[in-house]
Amino acid sequence: MSMKIINAEHGDGRAQGLSPAIERRARELFTVSYGELARRIDHMFMWLMIVQWVAAIVFAAFFSPLAWAGKSSAVHSHVIAAVVLGALITSLPVVMILRHPGTQMTRYVVACGQMLWSALLIHLTGGRIETHFHIFGSLAILAFYRDLKILIPATVVVAGDHFVRGMFWPESVYGVLNPEWWRFLEHAGWVVFIDAFLVLNCVQSRRELYSLSLRHAEVEYSKDAVVRYERLAAVGQLAASVGHELRNPLAAVRNAHSYLRKRIERSKGDSLEVNDRMRQFMSVIDRELDASAKIISNLLDFSRPRTVTAAPCPLRPLVAEAITIVPDSAGVTVENGVPEDLPIPDLDKDLFRQVFVNLIQNAAEACGAAGGRVEVAASGGGDAPWRIEIRDDGAGMPEEVRAEIFKPLFSTKTKGTGLGLAVVQGIIERHGGTLEVQSEVGRGTTFTIGLFPT
Ligand code: ADP
Ligand code: MG
Known about the structure:
It contains twelve helices and nine strands. It is of the alpha+beta class. Helix 3 runs parallel beside helix 5 (151-168), helix 4 (133-142) runs parallel beside helix 7 and helix 5 (151-168) runs antiparallel to helix 7 (183-267). The relative contact order is 0.07.
């Protein structure tokens, strides 16, 4: 089939609005890769929460040791806050991350939890201004989610905490007892300032992720389209040649039939004498129907109307040529084991190159990603038949697949056209040769070509 047809139809297809399908697929891919990203960041936050908890306890224990009152000792309230409040703040996000990783609800909970951690750390350090950096750091890390919606609850939690504590325990948030009443607004202003940039960043990096998905979808689509149009082109070609070749015999049959019908109708039920002309037309019908049947079976074999022009052709170089044409697949070695001194058969070089290319390619594909070994071996020749084997240690095939493989358009591969073996078989048959296959699931497959001296 010609590449021109494929390209033209491909171009048309896209212009005719197959792009909603691509967009749908792109959204699917986006959802998948966004989910992966969100789960990865969920996981990171889980550890961050736990580390913060441990750090808070250590800090509280170190800076606020046991307070002594007479002979009894009491644990300082900061240590209790670190242990108890820390556990409360950490537990819900961790449970959500473990139970519902990657969901937006989990992200909301994580965002609120992380900002509460800022509040608790600021409280534990007595409102040190340096600890306020934790807020900005946390917002930036939350932006890794590329989800601007979660910045809203995060900001609300920060502002709410500042406002409420600023009213009742100003020392624990600003480090001084009498801050100006608008102090919380100043803090909120800085948070909004950084939020603005983080929102921009979220939107942009989300867009980048989507356009990456779109590109992937387009690549997928164009690969699928090539295979689909190759199939369509093959079916179209088959249909066209069947149609063309059947037109002449069918015209002859119709002609003969209309003559016979006229004769029969004209007899008006009287006994009808069969004359030579009628006999002649009846044999035309017989002959042409036979011819039609032959055409159909030939074309269904996917034998192209390309005549075989056989000439002496050494096999080893031909196999070597075919091996270079088959695209390399990782981990698969292809070996040319055809003896140098093998007697030279008569065959159509171009057609037989295609035979080897198809068989070697199938063998390499059967080895798959796991890798494997493909070998071409040959023996016989001269007065005896040639025996050429293409062996692989690939996946093999079950009997129900083996029974179908020579049918045109049969393929078990998602990107297969199913024409390879139909073409191979047609070519070998036209050389008067034989093609046999032996296969065992999990062990490999051997195709054996038999060629007979002319
Ligand atoms: P395609 O390669 O496009 O699938 P083919 O006509 O070349 O079409 O082969 C048809 C089917 O026969 C393949 O899809 C595959 O299932 C099977 N097949 C062919 N060669 C081998 C092999 N060496 N090992 C296992 N299965 C094979
Ligand atoms: Mg093939």
